[in-house]
Give the backbone structure.
Amino acid sequence: MPNFCAAPNCTRKSTQSDLAFFRFPRDPERCRIWVENCRRADLEAKTSDQLNKHYRLCAKHFDPAMVCKTSPYRTVLKDTAIPTIFDLTSHLKNPHTRHRKRIKELTDEDIRRMKERRLASSTDQLSSGKDDGADDGTGNNDDEPQLSTEEKEFREYLRSLFEVVVMLGKQGVPLVADKIPEGELKSNNLQALLDYRMNAGDEALTKRFEATAVNTEYLSAAQQNQLLDVCENTVREEMLMEVRESRFFSLVTGDLVEFASEKHLPLFLRYVNQQNVLREEFLDFVPFDGDEPVLVERLEAQLTDRWGLSMEDCRGQAHKATGTSTTKMKAVAVLLMEKYPLALHMPCSHMALNIHLANSLPFPNVQVVMETMRKIGAFFRTPLTQEELEKAISIHYQKNEEKGTTLKQACGSGWTEQHNVFDLLVDMLPPLLLCLDVIRDNDDGKFVGSVTSDAYSIAETLADFEVIVTIVILKNVLTFTRAFGRNLQGETLDVFFAANSLTAVLHSLNEVNDNIDVYHEFWFEEAVSVATVMDIPVKIPRLFLRKQRAADMGEIQAEPYFKEYVTVAVIRGVMQEVEDMFCETNLKALKCLSLVPAVMGQMKFNTTEENYADVYRNDLPNPDTLPAELHCWRIKWKHRGKEVRLPTTIHETLQLPDVKFFPNVNSFLKVLSALPVLKLEENKSDTASERLQAYFDSMPAKQWNKSLAVLNVNTHVKHDLDVMVDKYCRLYVEDDPEGEAKLDEATEEDATK
C-alpha cells in the first residue's frame, strides 16, 4: 500500500516518487512540533502513537542536511530533524484541494510561541555545532551511518555503468553494433565503451570485470534492460514532477512507430511549468494493439496509475495520426471526450490544418495521395534528388521562368508539410513525374538501386488519373480552409480572429456543397488538363470497372463517377471534420484568448470573456470574482502609459510580474496556453516530436530502442547518477553483498554458456 504525504498542498506518494517517507515521531514533544509546522488543524487531536502509525511526511519537507543515507537502499532522519519546508499558499489557486489537509490559521499566540521555539532551537544547534567542532576536527557526526567498502565499490561500479548508458542514449548510439556476422563475437557498443573506460583507468569497472572471460559479454541482456529502465524512469520522473506541479496538461500523440513488429504510439504532454513557460515533452511509447476502448483504457492507466496524473486535469488532446490509424485515433478522441468533456479534441500545432483534414478523410484514394506525399517528402530530402527536381522544373517551365523560379524556391525542405501543399503539388506534378522518370532510367548511373526503385514506385502512383483527380479536388476544396488554418497556427491575435472566422469558412464550404455540379465541372476540367500535359489517359479505376461488370451495371462516364466518389465525398468529409474539430466548446476556449492584452487592444477593449468563461469556471481559484477581476484587467491595459507596450502572446502576459494580482486571469491563461492547437514559443529551436523523428532517422529501424529514444529526445532534462544508483539498488538488489553475489553468478553463468 502506498504512503501518502501528510503535508498540506503535497500530493506525493511513494509509488510515484523515489523520495523517502518518514513516520511522525513517537516522542510527544517532537510530534507536536511536527504537527505545528505542518499547520494541519485536523492532526492536533491525534496522539503521537496514532500519528506514528498512520501518517508520513516525504523528504521534500526537511532540510537536506537532516536526511542521511545509511546504505544504497535505506534513508533515515537525524534524531533532531524537524520539517520546515512547506507550501502553504498554492491551495489558494486550486479550489479542488481546499476540503483536504485544511491549513490552520495561526493566531498571534501561535506565532509568538513558534518564534520562541525556533530561536531556542537555533541557539541549541549553534552551541551543538561548536561542541562538535571542538571534539572532532572534521565536523562529522560520528552517529551518522556509513557505507561499507563493498557497498561503496558496488555503487561506484553502478555509477560507471549508468554514465555509459546515459551517454549512449544522449548521443543516439545504439547498444548493438550493426551488421555483425553470427560466427563472430557478439560485441556491442556498450561493451566497447566499457572496455575503453577500463583501459582509461576506471577502477570500479576493472575490479568488476577483470576476471571475466574475454569472449563473453560483460552484462547480460536482462541486466542491460534493467539499466535502461532505471535511466528512462528517472528522466521521465523529472518531467512528470513538473507536470504535477503545473496541474493542467494536454495529451498529444504522434504517428505510429514499430518496435519488433509491434506498433506503438508516441506520447507527449504539453503544460506550462512553474516559470510560466510552455513545454511539450516526450514521455513514452504506448502499445497500439487492441480496439479503441482498450487503447483508451491503456492511455488512462498510463497517465493515472503509472504517472500519478489526473485525467480530470487534461484540457486538450491532439492526435497526429496518418493512414489507417486515423479512424482509430478519432474514435479514441471521442471516447476520451465522453469521459472527460474538457479534454478538447483539437488539431496539433505541429501539422498544417489542411494536411490534418486530408489525413482525416477515410477514403482509400485520399489516403494513397497522403502516403505518396510523405514518400515524396522523404525522397527529395537528399541534395542529389533535390537537384534533379530543380532541373526538371527548369525544363518544364522554360517558357515561364518566373513561375519556375517561384516553384524552385517553394519546393525546398519541408514543402510537403506546408499549408498550400496541394496548390504546389498540382503545379509540380508534370516536372515531378519528369524528374522521377529521369531518376528511374538512371542513364548516368548517379543513383543507387534503392533510389531508382523508390522513384519507380512514386511515378507509378502519380501516373494514375484517379490520383490526379483526387489531388486537384483536395487543392480546390481545401483552398477555403487554407487561410483559416494558417491563422490558427499564427500569433495569438491571428488565432483569435480565426476562431471568429469559422462561420464564414463553413458558409463557403456549404455554398460549394449546394452548387457541387458547377464546381465539379470546373475542377474536373482542371484535372483533365493536368493529365493531358502528363500524357496520362482519363479513365475510371480498374477496380471499379471490374465490380461494375460483376454487378452487370450500366456503363458510367468518368466525370459523374469522380463527382460521386471523389468530389462529393471530399467536400462533405472536410465539412464534417471542421465541424467536429471546432465545436462550440472549442471555439469558446479559443475566443478566451481575448484575455491577452494585444487582442484586447485590437478589439478596442470591448471584449466579453465572461460569456465564454463558463468552460473553465471550475479551474479558477475565485470564479465568483471573475467579472470584477476582468473589468480591472481591461481597465489596467486601457489606461496604461503611452510607453507601455501591450503583450502579444500568452507567454509574454504570464511573464508580467503583476499578473499574480489577477489570480483568475493567471489561471485562465495557463489553461489556454496548454491547448495543443496553439504553437510553441519561437525560442524553441526544435520540438520534442522533431527530436524524436531525428532519432529514428539517425539509425536503422532494427536498432531502435524505446528507452534510448526517451534519453535521446530529452537530453535537456537533468539527471542524477546517484538517484539512478539508488533506484537500481532498491529495485534489483535487496541486500548488497547478496546482490553482488547474484550478479557475479549471473555473469559466470553467461561466461560458461
